[in-house]
Design a protein that fits this description.
Blueprint (H helix, E strand, L loop, with lengths): L1 H26 L14 E10 L5 E13 L4 E11 L6 E10 L5 E12 L5 E11 L4 E4 L4 E5 L2 E5 L1 E5 L4 E5 L4 E4 L1
Antiparallel strand pairs: 1-2, 2-3, 3-4, 4-5, 5-6, 6-7, 6-8, 7-10, 8-9, 9-12, 10-11
Amino acid sequence: MNWRWISLAAALAALAIGYSVFNDRRAAPAPSSAPPPQPGYYLNDAIITQTQKDGSLGVRLIADRIKQLPAEDGIELNNVRMNYFRAPKEWILTARRGRVPADSRVVEFTGNVQLRPSDQPNAFLRTDALALDAERNLAHGREAPVSLTFGPHTVVVQDFTADLNTEKLRMEAVHGAYQSR
C-alpha cells in the first residue's frame, strides 16, 4: 500500500511539473519583428569641416562633444566654436551648446552665444540664444535681451536679425539703451 501512495504522489508531481512547464512555454513573449533601436554616434574633441559646392570652405565646426540624438535624428553639440565661411567674409561663433534638428538648415545655439566678424574682434553680438540659417546666411535672436558690443559701447536690444552677407543688422530696440562700458 505504501508503494501505491508513493506511485500516486509521483504521478501527481509529474503532472504538476509538466503543467507548469507547459504554461511557462505558452506565456513566452513572441519575438518582435521590429529591430531594436540602434545607438547613436558621438565624437569627442571633434573638428568637422564642410565644403561648399565649389570645394571652398563652408563651415569649420569645433566642439568638445558631438552626439547624435537617435530618437529625433538630430545632433547635439557641447562647447562649440564655428568658423563660418559661407558669407563674403568669415564669421566666428562660440556657444556652450548647439543643436541641429533633423533635416534642418537652421542651427540653434544657446549659452553665452557670441557672433563676430573674424576681422573685427571688438565688434560682436552676445546673447543667450541664437539661430543661424545656414542657407540664407541669417542669424536671429531667440531670447531677449541681446547685447551688441562695438568697442567700448554696448547697445541692449530686444530682438535682432543679422544678415551675414551684407553685414546689416535689423534691431527691435524699443527698450534698448546705448551704454558705455
